[in-house]
Structure formats: structure tokens, C-alpha cells
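G.,

No rush on this.
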Amino acid sequence: MSDSDDQGAAWRVPPSAYLARRPPAYGIPAPPRSLYLTMKDGCRLAVDIYLPTAPASAAAGPRCPTICIFTPYYRRFKVKAGATGVEPSPNVCKYRDTFVPRGYALVVVDVRGTGASFGTRDSFRSPREREDYREIADWIVAQPWSDGRIGATGVSYLGAACDFLASTGHPAVKAIAPLFAVWDTYSDHYYPGGILLNQLAETYDQLMVGLDHDRREILRQFAYYADPNLEGPHPVDEDPDGTSCRAAVAEHVGNFHMPDFITEFRFKEQPLPYDETFSSSSFSPYHYMSGIKPDVAIYSVSGWMDGAGYANGAISRHLTLPNPNRYLLLGPWDHGARVNVSPWRNRVDPEFVVLAEVLRFFDEHLAGMETGLRAEAPIHYFTMHDETWRAADAWPPIEAAETRFFLSTDGELSRAGGAAGSDVYKTDFGFGTGEHTRYERIAGIDNRDYYTDWQGRDAALLRYTSAPLDADVEMTGHAVAEFWLASSEADGAVHVYLSEIEAAGRERYVTEGVLRALHRKDAVDTPHHRTSWPTHSYTREDAAPLVPGRPERLRIALLPVSWSFRKGSRIRVAIAGADSDHYVQVPHGRPPILTLHHGGTMPSHVALPLRVKKQ
């Protein structure tokens, strides 16, 4: 089936229909104007400016609102001489081609320490970058083509940069659309459940070395940059022979390296040993949310297979910010909506055009047009297997109700708790979830199929399976596992996988969750980080080693999803102590023996946000 916005009746005006009403009215300059902007500390940043041009002429269009893109992934490549048909801006072209012909200026910046910009990166989304954004906004509103209104969008790093821009409190910033972007870099990205994604750190570092150092032999290993006609960052107009660009790249050798950097933050919000003002919060959007003015409109977008927690980030941003004009879109997508991840898809590439919805949002809240967006529901989400879009006024959707399935003897999931018992699982540090998972895309790996090799992969894990369902049910939101667990060690990892076993025996991965036992203490929401699911602080102050052999309660929120289970299918929960393909060992070199208690006074269970579907 398709993820097209005509699946269901969730919109009064579907995004594709809105886009059809907004044909291009201007041309796109080729190439853009480019220049260096000098920041107050002397660092020079490379900037491309695309201005809408009047049809069939080179004359400038009217004064217009500006959309900003802040990227560490090259604003534009230099293309090999003589090459034809090569897109020099593979990370930017979709924004250029959507917004500029419809009357927006587009300003694209190589953030400091990247591309053709000078400086070094001292952090992943450095606070220094945030101050650069404020200066760039000042420059934009002073230009003769600017109408004084600024927005921002972008995927992943670029999306979180939108939050950073808005958090400067600059009065010109009126609307941001963070796409597939974290709210908390610690728990949404590198330390889900408090456990480091070590393979992500290594692969991301390879990518950034390839980009920042202009190591093209490394970049060729990534599908996004495999075209041999792409020859490093494009110099700005004032640097025709590339002398300044080469000097900038030489400075990038001083950039941080992710595996070294991210392991400095074993606990959330713990300061660096050499800078007590800098912690994981320093490169997380939530830390700066109080700077976002209430009149800024926000559109958060993510997908059900968006890495290790990006969907949590989108939902938490939506729940946390008090701004009245905010929207949430959750689709059947991986990171960046490059793939439709539904097992029932009819094509790999999504048919839903995310930027059509973002265009409508900017038209309404940045350009001041009447688009009908305010009459739409603020939340839209896609239910897989039903293959339909739904609308909601709040998250989680109000029609979803919690249904508990209790773990019991003989590997059963029962609707009622049983007699006291326990099961033992010896952690296998060799177990992994493979190479077709939710984790590859966030490392820049071009994964096209998701969990197609899941059948039987969990056979050696601790598993509990329900009786066949007596009706079709929809699960939307966060499933929550509550386990009473003892370990032979003072720590351990608990990975929880939720699957549907169809009547014919086909096993389908639905979602998963993870928690390091050290971080089992429940946390309460803060004004900067609100959720609708159990969370943990991941701080050193709340960390508590286990007493070997003593059962403790762990609550683990699985990643959100909207999934339709069919009548006759069974629900399965599988539990592991490791995922060697993506996470570090916990504890290192000491595979724990886990004892899972259930029934009696320790009723381990999973709570699923289910509703029975109308027949």
C-alpha cells in the first residue's frame, strides 16, 4: 500500500492538494550568490543565497521571507569540470526547489568548522554555532531582499539547528519546521536507555572526517556522496581559485571526533572535566527552549523507524513547548523519510511529500497567507497495516486505552496475572539485530529494507507470546514494559522487542525499547522535557548499581508506533541483554545472568495502548 496523503480522510485539504494549488511563480538562480560572513569572533562562514527571480529574467523578485538551512554536510559541492547532470547540492536541492520558486529566499550556511567555512567544531551542535545563527539572522534582516521574517527547516542536525535558531529569541524568527530531529541528544540519539550506540559514533565520525577533511575516498563509501563528480566543498564567489576554501578545510583538522567526544558524557548533564559549563544539555535543543518566543510556530516531523528515539524527540518537542501554533506529523518512514518502512508498502520511496506540508506551514505562519492549516487537526499519524492516515487533537490519541499482558510460565503473555514464577536468561553478547534495522540510516547507511530478516532472529531470547487476538486492534503510542528483574551482576542492559506473529506464522518486528539497569529510577517531567511515557534522568545522582540477585522493578518505554494487529495474530515480547550490532556491552566483558520474575507480588507485564477496531 501507499503512504500517500489520500489514504484516509485525515486532512480537509491534503498536503498534495495544497501543493497543486501553489505552482512555481519564480525562477531559481543558478548558481546562487555566495559569500563569506564574518562572525564577531572573526570566524568566516560560507553562505549561499538563493533569491526568487522573475520569470524569464534575471531580475530579483519581491522582498520576501527567508528560510534558513544550517548544515555540516556541505551547502554545495564543487562539481568536476565537464560533468553534466550532477546536482551540486544533494542535501539542499529539495528545499531550494520547493521554496524558492514559491517566493521564499533560501539562505544555506556551512556551519563553522565544516564545508568551506573556517573554524573548528568543539561539539556536536556547538553553543558557538547557536550564537552564529543569531548573527546570521541579523545579517538577513538587513538585506534589501528580506521582508524581515525568518524561518528554518531541515532534517536531523539541520532540524535541531532550527530549535537553536529559534532559541536565540531573535524577533525575526517566526516559524521553524524541525524534521526528524532530536529534542534531547542524549536519550533521543546517542544514549537511548542510557546505553551508548557505539557503532553509530564510529560510522558518523568516518562520515564527518570524509566531509570536514575533504577525504573523498572516505566519502565514496557513503551512498549519499558516492558520485565521483563531487569534488569537495564549493568555494564562495570571492574565492574563485579555492585558496580560502582549502585554508578553511585545513583548519577542520582540529575538529572533535565523535567516539572520543560522546564517551565524555556517560551521564546526562554531567559537565566536561575541563569545562563545568558544558554538558550533554549544551548540544540538546531542550536546554535552550526558554528562549523560544511564544509567537514562533513549530512543525515537528518524524517517522516510526526514525533511529533510536527521534520520534520521541518530535513528540516531546510538541508536548513541551507551550506555543499555540504547533503541529506534529508522524509517518511510516525512516530517518529523513527516505524510505516507506511499512511491511505492506507498494514501493520503497515514499509517495507522501513532507515538504508539501512544510510549505503550507510556512505559507501560513511565515508568509502570512490564508492556507486553511489552522482548521486542520494539529496532529497527523499513519497506522501501518491499516495503511491510513489519522488525525488527532492531542498526544497520545485520546481513543487509545492501555491493555496489560502479563508474563507467565511457559512463555505465555496472559491478560491476567498468574502464580509467582521466574525465568532465567544468560546474556549472549554475540546477539545482534542485524543490518536492516532502525539504526543504520542515522549513521548515513542507505538501508532500504527494515527487519526483513527478523523471522526467527529472537528464537534464542527470553520470549513470551499471547493467545490469538479475537479482534483487530490498533496500537498507537508507547508500549511500556514493567519487569521485575534480578541480575548476577551489578548492572545490565535490557532490550525489549515487540512483534506480531501472524496466523500463518510470519513474525513481524513492531518496535523495541532498551534500558540500562543502572538508570532504572523513574524520573518526573521537567518544564524543558515533557513526555507521555516513563522516562529516566540518566544522571550520575540517580544511577544505582543493582544488588546481584535482588529483583528490582524496571519500566521501559518502547519506541512509539501506530500498528494494526490482525485478528488471529499473537503478540510476542522478546527480551535480550545485548545488541552487539549497535550498542556497547553492559557491563563490559561480564555477560549477566538475568532472572525475570513474574506473577504474584512481582507481576511483570507489558502495557499496550490498544483500541479495538470497529468492524
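When you get to it, here's the other one too:
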Amino acid sequence: MWGLGKTMKTQVQYFAKILFSLSFVAMVMYAVNATHIGSPTILIFAAAVGAYMALNIGANDVANNVGTAYGAGALTMAGAIVIAIIFTSAGALIAGGGVVETIKKGIIDPSKIEDVKVFVWIMLAALLSAAIWLNISTAMGAPVSTTHSIVGGVMGAGIAAGGWDIVEWSQMARIAASWIISPVLGGVIAAGFLLFIKTKMVFQDDMIGSAKKNVPILVALMSLAFVTFITLVGFGKIWTPICSVLTFSPDTQKPSFLIALSFAAIVSAIVYFLMVPYVAKRALTLNNNRADINSLFKVPLIFAAALLSFAHGTNDVANAVGPLAAINEVLTATTLENRVAIPLWVMIIGALGLSVGLALFGPRLIKTVGNEITELDSMRAFSVGMAAAVTVILASVLGLPVSSTHIAVGAIFGVGLLREWLIARKIEESHTSRLAIYKNEDEDVLDFIARFEESSLIDQERILCSIKRGKCILHGEDAHELTQEEHQHLKKLFRRILVKRNAVKKIFTAWIITVPISAALSAFFFFAIRGFLIV
């Protein structure tokens, strides 16, 4: 399923994971059969496919929530997985999936589906194709959008069932636009936050004094963004009970943006007044350098990972079990409604599947998000988390279709590009001023970059170097000036190292082909299911 290892030990571990996954799917089938006596066989099969889909979402999509915290060193791999499992499951079971649109995101027109059996085939084919594509993407190490995967599946099966006219092409155009909107918004916002952190703290002579002033503000802003985000996307199911307790709250079906922002403002004010003494106390033990200032963001980063995981559980669990809920509704009520409630047993399958998939196969994508696009520290990872929350809020307010996966990866790409720009600017200044360069063939490029970013502005000016044939030239006896050729070579090499272009190309390619590949697979499965006459 998720790629063979190179050694015998790795292969044994891999097949053990496969066996455990198959056992989970078999247990789901047994449980559904035992608790739904007399139900059609296709419901049991659909439950198995839903469990398989949940496994793949756990393996691929959940990594976006904790990958940055892992890459920054704020969480170990085990810690990242535990936090993701707990908070994703909590989000799914507590506040997730109150109702789900059976015709996902309005991709196809339900009025053109005359036979409810055809609708069941469409949902089943869409679920199976999306799960298989996520499986393939995870094996390639490419984080892709689960929403786009299921959307492509619904579109492909819909076309197979009712022709091209059944598709709402205006909605598909909006989704295609999100391939650009999501990563660009995420990248710009993340780079903006990181630039603020560097300008207000890292580039100051008194880093500790600046951190005491700005870190509480940044963490309060993080609280504002995340509480608003979670209230908007996750409180739909539990909003009525909340209103019954908080009688002063407006009696609405779901929280509005102003309500969410008001709650968030109260929480962020509390967080700010708690952070001021915390940072002041921590500052007493810190040195005036970038590494110690960076450590102030580790605890907020852990909270960000937890909140992102909770929000993911509330919102995206429907991608795993929404089609299954729709199939269950049609088979039990024999009606085709546009929106249906998700039964608890369906939500449990989704929550358990996400957890099992993440525990077994999540580490690969967590490493991809955390390490393989650009090097992350707590400041950069904090900026990525902020970008994810702020971008989703902006998209919700403006009605823009965005992907949380695309936002997270675009944000990581954005902070990497900012690093490139800042260092390239310093290289340009060194070339213009013709600073002396010192040779040392023993220091490699990554060591140099790490030490370069730890240095003050004055020291950065002094230690800028030329890189030739993969070696860093620094602190030797033979000095020479930076030539034009070395200057260009240095900028290109930094660009290749700071943002790994091959990983980015692989991920963007997977994004572009997600909808068409899922659609093609879904059309195939629709015809296969109809041909076998499962129902």
C-alpha cells in the first residue's frame, strides 16, 4: 500500500502495518454487519471503503497539522503522532460532521440522478477512487488535498453516470482557482509573519527586550486566529447546546464571523496577560541570541499543532465518511436528500481510521512536510501555523475555495523563499562592497547556513562567503574577493538548498493531477460496480 522498504527489517515492518490495516478494515466490516442485520451487502462494502479512505487521510492529510512542529524540533515524531491522534479524534467526535452535503461541494446536480441506486454507485466509486489516489500520493511522499480527491471522484463518477452536463462547471473552476489561491495566500501570509518576527526581534541589538514586548502579542494573535478558525469550522454541531448554556449568545444555527471573532478576542486577551509574565520569567535565563529567542515559540507551536489537528477533525473527517453517510441514508431511507446527518457509528469509523492511518503511515508525510521542503525552526513553523489559520479565516469570509494542505505547503514554501531572499540580499551587498572572502574547505553548506542565521547583522556581513563545488569558503588564511561568477554561483546554490525544488515540483505536480486522476479512477470504478450489479 504505502511503499516497500529496502531492508528485510523494513519490509517486515511494512507488511505488519499492511496486515494491521487490513485487520482494521475487516473489523469495521464485521461490526457493521453485526449491528446492521438485514442491511444490504453494499453498505458493509461501503463501510470497508470508508475505513480505507480514513486510513489514507490519516496517512496523508493529518501530517500537515503536526509536520511543522516536528520539523522545528518542538515535537518528537511520537509526540506529534500522539497529539494528532488525540486532537483529530476529539475534533471529529465532539464537533465534527453534524451534516454533510451528499453531493459534495455542489459538484454534480442531484436532480439529474433519477435512480437512488445510481447515486450509491457514484458515492462508492468516488470514495474508492479518492482513497486509492491518496494511497498513491502517500507512497510518493506528496501531501495532497483530500477534499480535491473526493471532489474529483464525485465528478468522474457523475460524468460516467449522467454525462458532462451533470457537473457544475462553475464550481469546478473555483476549485481549480484554489490550486493557485491556497498556496499563494499561505506563502505570502507566512512570509509576512516571519519577516515581522525577524525585523522586530532577530534583527534587533536587544533581542531579549524585543521578545518580551512582541512574543506575547504574537501568541495572542495566534490565539485570536485559531479560536476564530475553530469556532467557524468546528462549532456547527455543538452550537445549539452552547447557546442554551450561554443564553446571551445569538440564537443562530451556527456561529457567525463576528461571534467567532468576539469569542476569540476574549481568549486572546487572557492569553496575552498570561504570556507577559511567562516571557519575562523565561527572559531571565536567556542569552541575547537567535537560538534562545527561537525557544520562546516552542510551547505555542505545540498548542498550534493541537488546535490545527482539532480543526482538521471537525472539518475534514467528512471527506472520509461523508459519502458513507450518504450511502447509508439512501439505503435506509430510500430518499436522496441534499444534506444528511452523519450517524455516530460512521463518525467512529472516520475517527478510528484517521488515527490508525496516522500511527502506521503518517511519519513519512510528517517528515516531508517538516523537513523536505525547507529547514524549519520554531519561528518559521509558528509563521506557517499562523498562515494556515489566517488564510482559512480569510477564505471563509471572502467565500474562496481553499485547501488546508495547499495552504500549509505554500506557507512552508513562503518562509523558505523569504530565507532565500534575505540571504541573497546579503550576498548582493557583499559583492557590491567587495568584502574579503576566506577559504575553509571543511565546513559544508548546511553548517554554514545554520551558523550564518545565528549571527548578528554585523557578523553576517563579515562571514558571507563564496560556495564552490559544494564547499563553504570561510575563516582560512587565503583571502580573495567575491568574483561575479562566484557571486552568481553562491546565490544559485543557496536557492537550491534553502527551498528544495525537487520536492516542491513533485508536490505541485501531484496537486495538479489530483482531480483528473481521481475523476478517471472514479469513472472506471463506477462502470465496474454497475457492471457487477452489486446492488
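The longest strand covers residues 99-101. DSSP finds 19 helices and six strands in the chain.

Enjoy the weekend,
O.
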